[in-house]
Structures are given as structure tokens and as C-alpha cells.
Amino acid sequence: MHATGLYSSSLSRSVLGFRRDQVRVMDAGASKQHEMLLLDFQRCVADLCVDLSDAAAPGAHDFLSLSWVRRLLDAFLMCHAEFRALLQESRTLVVRSPLDRLVADFSDRAVKALDICNAARDGIDQIRRWRTHLEIVVAALGPAAGTSRHGISEGQLRRARKALADLADLMLDDQDAGAALTRRHRSFGRSGSSFSLQKSGRHLSSLRSLSWSVSRPWSASRLLQAIGSNVAAPRSHEVVATAGFAVPVYTMSAVLLLTMRALVAAIPCQDRGLQVHFSVPRTFAWGAPMTSLHERIMEESRKVRKGRAGLLKEIQQIERCTHRLTEQIESIRLPMSAEEEKGLRQRVEELVQVCDALKEGLDPLERQVREVFLRIVRSRTAGLDCLSRAAQ
């Protein structure tokens, strides 16, 4: 009996030891998988930032163009999807302190970004109205307009001149155009509205400020400051306490802030001031390219004149082309010489190219802005549901 008891005791200790070793192996495997997920997310963000930064290098043709902004929003959506998948893999950690607080802070920042998405949607709609006036100019002076043997007539020049003047009014800076407005509604800009103001002899009933659906005190600059408030790299004890998840939360906050800053810079928005603190450590793989992107945006904002509606490349093309065409039309005396008509056709062809770029790029950009909005809303809803189930 005694020998049998010793054998049973040894066997029990051996089995328990094997189970402990097995648990350690499983824990080590889970820890390794967890670490790989965190590293994969950092690499994903870094690769996307490098790609965007390369396309924003000095001399890059597409920086802050419609196509570049679409790439930026695509990158944000990819990062957000990876971030949500990462949190989904570790649901038990997300509902625990202190990670629950960090995730909630990020969620609050993302909700603030919804207003910027709305403002960007309004800005895109405004650019569409600009395109309508450009199309009037093209219809008046384009190839189809000069088919008569007498060439371009005074009536055609007058029509183009009026469309260019209306466009100049529409592109006035919001602070100049809508100083007397107390609230903006999309309905104010609809046909048949009796609302109008007088400024420099022009009626302002159709100016850009009337198309906005946000209140007059709303400020893109202040909202960016709110999104960037308290965004700081996690300290070592926060990283340890959250099993490393404080890092991707901070990373996603930086991605959100940069995306919203670029969107506000490019698209017409109310109070577009960009002097918001932005600093990320270069120790992160994505730190250097993200800082480079921010510096390039600030560099472009310093180049342009105060009051410009947006840094979007196509907006700059509109301003440049319409300015040249207006000057040329004002200098024309009918009948035009063959050289004058050729120069006018070249200016109109520049407008045709801008119109084509807007026609091809605005709708896809608006869909992406809408997708960013919906993705944030769904993420917020899922987060609240998760916390609600954890509290039960």
C-alpha cells in the first residue's frame, strides 16, 4: 500500500507538472500572437503613412489633389478596420481599466470628427456649384460655341463674364461673405429664396456661406483642437497596464487627427485655421512619415494667400484658370483676331480639364467621406453595446 501510494503521488505530481507546462506553452503562444497583432497594426499604419508621404514629397504632382485626399481616406479606413479587428481580438481587455478609458477617449475624439465629415460634405457640395459656373463658361466659349463664321460674339463673352463674376462671389472666403448671417441652412441656398444681402453692389443670396448646414459659431479649427487635446504617447506603465494596447489606441488617435487636419485643409470648411499642436515621437515606425505629412500641409498653407477656400489642388487650378480667363476677356475688343481667339480657346481648354477632374473625383470623394462617417458611427455603437454587455 505504501509503495502504491508513493507511485500515485508521483504520478499526480507528474500530471500536474505537465499541465502547468502546457498552460505555460499556451500562454506563451497567446502572448506571442498578441505581440504579433500589435506589431502588424504598427506596420500597417507605417506602410500607409510612408505611401502617403512619398506622394506628398516636394514637387509631387498629386499632393492635396482629389486623388490624394481619396488615398488618405482609404488609408484611414484601412487603419480603422485593422484597429477594430485588434480590439475585437481582445474584448476582455477592452472592458477593463485602464484600457476601457483610453478606448472611450478615442471614441469621443472620433465622434467629434463626425462634424468635420459633415462640413467636408458641405464643402464638396459647394465645389459642385463652382463647377456649374465653370460649365457655363465652357458652354459659352468652348469649341461648340464658336461654330458661326463670325466667331465668338459679344453675347457669349457677356455670358461667360457673368458666370466668372458669380463664381468669384461664390469663392469668397466665408468670413467676408457671411458676416451678417446668424445661422446657415442648406434650404437658404435653394432657388426661390428671398434671402439676400448686398455687398459691393452684388447680391449674396447664393454665396457659399448659405450652403452650410452648421451653425455660425462652429469652427473647424476649434474642433481639431478638441480632437487633438490630450493626445500623448503612452508612458511605459500605461503600456504594461494595458498589455501593450495603449500604443495602438494612441496610434489610431494620431491617424484620426492627421486625417481630419488634411480634410479641413483641402476642402472648404468654416474657420479653417490649422495652427493646432501636432507632435508624434519619431520612435514609432509611422512617426517620421506622419510628421512629414503634417509639415507638408503646413508648408502649403503658408504658401497660399489668406482667405483661400481650400488647399485642394483643383481649387487652386480653378482660381488660376478663372483669373487668367477673366483678364483675357476684359482685354478683348471685338472682332477678335485669330491669335486672340486661339489664346481664349487655350484658356477655356484649361477650364475643361478642371471640370473633368471635378466631375470624376467629387462623387467618389463624397462617398468616402460618408463611409468614414458611417464607420465611426458603427464603431461607436458596437463599443457601447460591448460595454453594456460587460456591465450586465
Automatic annotation (TrEMBL):
A Pfam family reported for this protein in Swiss-Prot or TrEMBL: ROH1-like
Topology in the lipid bilayer: Single-pass membrane protein
UniProt keywords, alphabetically: Membrane, Transmembrane, Transmembrane helix
GO cellular component: membrane
Compartments where located: Membrane
Main localization category: membrane
Keyword Transmembrane helix: yes
PANTHER family attached to this UniProt entry: BPS1-LIKE PROTEIN
Similarity field: Belongs to the ROH1 family.
Protein name: R3H domain-containing protein
